[in-house]
Design brief:
Helix content: 55-70%
Structural class: mainly alpha
Largest sheet: 3 strands, mixed
Shape: globular
CATH class of the largest domain: Mainly Alpha
Radius of gyration: 23 Å
Distance between the termini: 49 Å
Number of domains: 2
Strand content: under 5%
Order of helices and strands: HHHHHHHHHEEEHHHHHHHHHHH
Strand order of the largest sheet: 1-3-2
Length: 508
C-alpha cells in the first residue's frame, strides 16, 4: 500500500514538480495575506479604511493572479502532464492545473475590478443593511452580477454561467447533482415542516427566554470553544456582523455575533465556526501552500461546521455536558433541565426570517430561496431591482412568512457583497454530507454519544482528522466521502437522521 508523504516528497520529474510547488506556495501566500486583510476589514478596521483597503486587496488579487497564470506555470504543468507521478503528485498537479486553467482564462484587469468592487460593496452592504435600504446596495449587486457573468464567459462561454460559478466553490460535484439533492431536501422537508406545525407536541421553547448580555454570552462562547477543543494558540474569537472563519493551519480565526435575546444563536454559530476552524487547523502543516494542505472545497468545509453545530451542538449529550456551564454563566436558567435545553435547541420555528438563526430543518428552505434567486440573477432571468419582491414572495411560498424589511430579507447575508454567487448550495450539500460522515463516525466510535456527554471529543477529532482533514485536496469530493463512509455521497443519511430525530421530538 502506498504511504502518504508530504507534498514535496518527489519521485518523478523532481525539478518541474518542485518548481510548480514553489509557485503554488507563492500564490497561496499572497492569498492568505489577502485573507488577513479581509478578516481585519470585517472585524477591526475603522469605517474610513475602505478606500485604501479596496486597493490593497485588489493589488494582492492581481499579484496572485499573475503568479498563477504566468507562462512558466503553464509550462511546468505541460511538462508534468505525461510524467510518471505518484498518486499524491497526480492529485497535486490535477488541482493546480484546474486552478491555472480557470485563472488563465480571466484577464487580470477583471480580477482587480471584482476585488475592488467587493471591498466597496461590503461597506455599502453593511450600511444598506443597517438602514434597511436595498436601493443603496443595488448598484453594487448589479455590478457584481455583470462582472461575474463576464468572469464565467471568459472561463467557458458555451456553458450555463451559474454552473461555471458554482465550480469555484464545488468543482467536484455537478450542478445537476446539487440541484437534485436540493430538490430531494425540499420534497422531504416541506411536508415534514407542515406536519411539525400541525403537531400537538409542545416543546420547551421558552427555556432560554430573557435578556442575556452580550459580554456574558461572549464568555460563554469562549467556554464552548474550549470545551470542544479549539486551539486558541492558533486562533481567536471576535465579533462580526456575519459570523465567519478565516485562516490557515497555523492561524485560523473565528467570529460570531450576539443577540441579547437569543443565547442559543450565538452558541450555535460559534460551534459552527469552530467546525470550519478545526478542519483548517487539521490540514497537514508540512503541505501548507499546496493542494495537500488545502481544504477540499466548500461542501466538505460546510460538512465540518454543520457536523459540529447540529450533530454535536444540538444533541442531548452535548446539553448534558454544557448545561451546567450555561447555568453558571446565567443563573436565572437554573431550573432548566437537559431535556428542556435539548428541545429549545431543536425547536422548528414558525416565523424565523434569518438564515443564521434558523432551525435545522427550515434552514434548507432559506438556502433554496437564495440559490434560486442568485441562479436567476446570473442567468439573466431576474433583474436586480426585482430581488426584494421575489425574495419576499418566495419566502411566503416556501416558509409561510414574509419579511417586513429588506434588512430581514434580501440584505441579511454578506455573500452577495463579496460576489460569491454559487456559494449557497454548499451549505445544504455540507449538511447532507455531515449526516453521512457522522453516521459513519458513530458506527466506528464506541459510545460516541457517551463520550460527548463526558466532554471527551478526542475520538471524534481523531476520526475526522483521519478520514477528512489530513487528506487536504488529495481526493475529489465523492471519493473522499466514499472512502470515509463506504458509501457514495447521497442524501439518505440526512433524511434518515432528520426523520428519526424530529419524528421523536414532535411525535410525527
Amino acid at each position: 500500500m502506498e504511504t502518504e508523504a508530504a507534498a514535496d516528497d518527489v519521485s518523478a520529474a523532481p525539478d518541474a514538480y518542485e518548481d510548480l510547488l514553489d509557485r503554488a506556495r507563492r500564490w497561496n501566500t499572497i492569498g492568505s495575506a489577502a485573507g488577513v486583510l479581509g478578516w481585519d476589514q470585517q472585524v477591526m478596521m475603522p469605517e474610513g479604511g475602505t478606500p485604501a483597503r479596496s486597493k490593497q486587496l485588489s493589488t494582492l488579487s492581481s499579484l496572485q493572479h499573475d503568479v498563477l497564470t504566468d507562462e512558466a506555470t503553464g509550462e511546468l504543468l505541460a511538462e508534468l502532464d505525461d510524467a510518471d507521478l505518484t498518486d499524491e503528485q497526480t492529485a497535486v498537479v490535477r488541482e493546480l492545473g484546474r486552478a491555472y486553467e480557470r485563472a488563465d482564462a480571466v484577464p487580470v484587469e477583471l480580477v482587480k475590478e471584482i476585488s475592488e468592487t467587493s471591498s466597496k460593496a461590503l461597506q455599502a452592504w453593511e450600511e444598506a443593511r443597517a438602514n434597511d435600504d436595498f436601493a443603496a446596495f443595488a448598484p453594487y449587486l448589479e455590478k457584481h452580477v455583470e462582472l461575474k457573468r463576464e468572469y464565467a464567459e471568459h472561463i467557458d462561454p458555451d456553458r450555463d454561467p451559474y454552473e461555471v460559478l458554482f465550480e469555484d466553490y464545488e468543482p467536484c460535484l455537478s450542478i445537476d447533482r446539487a440541484e437534485a439533492i436540493l430538490e430531494e431536501l425540499r420534497e422531504t422537508l416541506v411536508p415534514m415542516i407542515d406536519e411539525i406545525r400541525e403537531s400537538d407536541r409542545d416543546l420547551a421553547v421558552d427555556t432560554f427566554h430573557g435578556e442575556f448580555p452580550a459580554d456574558d454570552q461572549e464568555a460563554l462562547a469562549r467556554d464552548a470553544l474550549k470545551l470542544v477543543g479549539y486551539d486558541f494558540s492558533r486562533g481567536r474569537l471576535d465579533v462580526s456582523s456575519h459570523p465567519f472563519t478565516s485562516g490557515t493551519q497555523f492561524d485560523c480565526r473565528v467570529t460570531t455575533r450576539f443577540d441579547e435575546s437569543d443565547p442559543l444563536g450565538a452558541i450555535g454559530s460559534t460551534i459552527h465556526e469552530f467546525g470550519h476552524a478545526q478542519y483548517t487547523l487539521g490540514l497537514p502543516k508540512e503541505a501548507w501552500g499546496t493542494p495537500l494542505g488545502e481544504s477540499r472545497d466548500l461542501s466538505v468545509h460546510e460538512s465540518q461546521s454543520r457536523l459540529w453545530e447540529n450533530h454535536v451542538g444540538r444533541s442531548r449529550a452535548f446539553w448534558e455536558l454544557f448545561l451546567p456551564t450555561f447555568q453558571a454563566q446565567f443563573p436565572e436558567t437554573a431550573d432548566a433541565t437537559v431535556e428542556d435545553a435539548y428541545e429549545a435547541a431543536n425547536q422548528v420555528y414558525e416565523d424565523n426570517l434569518i438564515r443564521v438563526e434558523a432551525d435545522e430543518l427550515t434552514y434548507h428552505l432559506h438556502i433554496i430561496v437564495r440559490f434560486e434567486i442568485e441562479r436567476d440573477l446570473i442567468r439573466g432571468d431576474l433583474a436586480v431591482e426585482d430581488v426584494p419582491e421575489v425574495w419576499n414572495d418566495t419566502y411566503e411560498e416556501y416558509l409561510g412568512i414574509r419579511p417586513d424589511t429588506d434588512s430581514a430579507g434580501c440584505l441579511q447575508d454578506i455573500h452577495w457583497s463579496h460576489g460569491n454567487f454559487g456559494y449557497f448550495p454548499t451549505y445544504s450539500l455540507g449538511s447532507v454530507m455531515a449526516a453521512q460522515l457522522y453516521a459513519a463516525a458513530e458506527a466506528d466510535i464506541e459510545d460516541l454519544e457517551a463520550n460527548v456527554a463526558d466532554g471527551d471529543f478526542e475520538a471524534l477529532h481523531e476520526w475526522l482528522a483521519e478520514h477528512v482533514h489530513r487528506h487536504g485536496s488529495r481526493y475529489e469530493t465523492n471519493e473522499l466521502v466514499e472512502r470515509a463512509t463506504g458509501e457514495p455521497f447521497a442524501a439518505d443519511a440526512f433524511i434518515d437522521y432528520v426523520e428519526e430525530k424530529y419524528g421523536e421530538l414532535y411525535d410525527l
